[in-house]
Amino acid sequence: MRKGTNPSKADHKMEISSTHRVILSVYIPELKSDYFKDAKTIFKYCIESLLNTVHADTRISIIINGCCEEVTQLIYDYQKSNQLIDQVFYTRENLGKINAIYSIVKSNLEPLITISDADVMFLPDWQNQVEQVFVDFPEAGMVSPVPSSKGFLYSTASTMYYGLFKGKIKFRNVQDPEGLINFQKSVGSNLYQKIHLEKYLVVSNGINEAVVGCGHFVATLRKEAFEAAPTKVCEFRILGNSDEDYVDEPNDLAGFLRLATLGNYAYHLGNSPQPWMEEKLQQIINSSPASASLEIPEAQAFSKTQYKIGKFLTRLLFNKFRKQYFSYLGVNEPY
User: Fold this and answer.
1) Which of 273, 219, 275 lies closest to 250, judged by CA?
2) Which of 101, 128, 227, 283 is the 20 to 30 A CA-CA neighbour of 92?
3) What is the pTM for the complete model shown?
4) CA-to-CA dists, residue 116 to 25, 40, 119, angstroms
């Protein structure tokens, strides 16, 4: 038998004071094997750098995605001591990165959502720099604090349309080549040639410039960018084009730009701690507090027709006639 009236019926509309949510999916099943033995240390660099670089209008969600007991307890300890961590989701089995992220995305209202791997070190001012790109480019739907010289190759049809018909696409000098070098070291691969460390492709609109394309190990998206994502559950825990299908392509299909900041404001750490990481973390902790959140303008998405035009031009200028097009833009070396 039910007595009285549920109080929530009188206050049925949800309202939030936060403007930016950060989602960390953590998968550290054990700490003994070579691959995971230092994962706890790397995660501590990640969460502590995040807590020391976000503004007060941020909320943090952590998914315990099949973690061992020691890491699980560490995450709950962080939640108890940090009010910005307002959500911790626990699952005994590894749901996969995408399914874990989407369990949070679909249940929160913040206009901006940053998704990040648990091996990222956030640098001071990353959030303000990312939000500034959304302010200056209302058409942006996905912005990373880590630029990539090869980011233009993937899911940038809407960005291409914008660059050719509303703004301008050009090459400019890489602002922080050390950031690119650190990233390729962290993944253990020589991703970039000399020219990639010197020049990257940017789009400008007379107000600001941003790098064309970005990676997805850390990126901020408008909430609307997820609306074009597949509705079915992702079948892959990792790989299988899951990031592309559920993050990168939906943003492009929704008619939004895929961009990155000119400077490098986060590091991908990999799974092997280095002495510089502890030093950098101490610098982050001692840095000035993050500035207030920016007011993000309403989304301005392109139409499906404009996306298709951009898709055609991307294939034409970034693939079939890349050498000629990039030569026209001033880069004559193979890129």
Assistant:
1) 219
2) 227
3) 0.93
4) 7, 16, 8
Among residues 165, 166, 142, the alpha carbon closest in space to that of 155 is found at 142
What sign does the CA torsion over 151, 154, 160, 161 have? negative
Buried b (16+ CB within 10 A) or exposed e, 131-148: bbbbebbbbbbbbbbbbb
pLDDT tens-place string over residues 162-218:
999 999 999 999 999 999 998 888 877 788 999 999 999 999 999 999 999 998 899
Fold of 17-328: Spore Coat Polysaccharide Biosynthesis Protein SpsA; Chain A (3.90.550)
Write the pLDDT tens digit of every residue in 272-331.
999 999 999 999 999 988 888 999 999 999 999 999 999 999 999 999 999 999 999 999
Q: Are strands 140-144 and 257-260 parallel, antiparallel or unpaired?
A: parallel
In 3D space, the residue among 30, 286, 258 whose CA is nearest the CA of residue 144 turns out to be: 258
Segments making up each domain of the chain, as ranges: 17-328
Note the maximum CA span of the chain: 78
Helices (H), the chain: 39-51, 69-81, 97-105, 126-136, 157-165, 177-186, 242-243, 249-253, 275-285, 304-314, 322-328
Distance CA 111, CA 113 (A): 7
